Amino acid sequence: MSRMPLVAAAGLLSLAPAVALAQAPVDDFARGRELRLAGRSAEAAEALERAASAQPQDADIWLNLGLAYAAAKRFDKADAALDRALALAPSYTDVQIARARIALFRGDAAEAERRLQPALQAQAPTPDAVQLRDQIAAALREGEMPWRFDASVSRARVSGPLPDSTLATLALSRRLTSGVTLGGSTEYVRQFGRTDLYVEGFAANRLGYLALGGAPDADFRPEIAVRAGLAGKRWSISEGWTVQLGLDGSWARYPVGDVRSLHPVATLARGEGFTLQARWINVLDEQDEYRDGYALGLGWQVAPRLRASLGWADAPESTQGVTTPLQAVSAGLQYDFGSAVVRIGGAHEMRPAYDRDELTLAVSRRF
């Protein structure tokens, strides 16, 4: 039956207030969801609270309210809202996944695994459920195996009469119960017939990192260098899609002078399945000359344990001991064996003086 005959029968004036009241919760829900996707969590929660109060039997409203609370790090309220949504719709997969994410955000991977089980037991688990399962498995491994060992070796062929170059790196780190990771690395570089040994120590957590290193009697690596970075909050821009902003900076003293850099970074992601990163590279080189460029990186999940990557850069760089313009294309594959990850990659670099082709093999292991 259409709405207009009802209005005619009951009288337009008497029904108008009731119609307005019925529409208000819908408007609050739509507005709250829009604000949540825009990253305005506090405002979203206020609108969704009004919607939930007006329509307490709507599981979608409670789900979005829980997600808004979670984005504002109000995890107790997020759990309570999602529990209401689950009570209203026990088989609602999005609610099951959201509850598992909350537990993972709080650092309780075991509880996240338990909450996700109903979503995984569905006849056809969604891609989001599968990706979250892998994230939880990785978090459980990290908790059980706080140590990480990294090793890599690269071999590069340089055009013209220049000799080939070799780079080898060893690193060891430990993740503390506080969430801070402490570690150190040693890098051996052999190029142009000369050798440098670069040593670095670092500390990192979810918010950023700080590293200090140097190469005694350096020929082309920094004599001393400081690196630091900040990682911003992930903003939800659409269902499953997030954007994260960051900033990396460094100061390095080379034999030829000081080089300073600042790199704003933006990363678009859909879970762990797809990432696109853009980096604006700003450099004040050893001659105090400003240079800039950019780098792009694309990564995607080819299979549950296999990941591929592509990259392109057109920017200044100083790894050869002097700042020069560089264009480079790269590609790689990574396979996760569980406690160990193996990566293989290649790059083609173009500089004014020569081209360079590099092949890299790397292994990471947790224990």
TrEMBL record:
The signal peptide here is 1-22
Mention any Pfam family matching this sequence.
Answer: TPR_16
Do you know which SMART domains this protein is assigned to? TPR
Which organism does this sequence originate in?
A: Phenylobacterium deserti
The TPR repeats are found at: 59-92
State the protein's name. Uncharacterized protein
Any coiled-coil regions, as ranges: none
What keyword terms does UniProt attach to this protein? Signal, TPR repeat
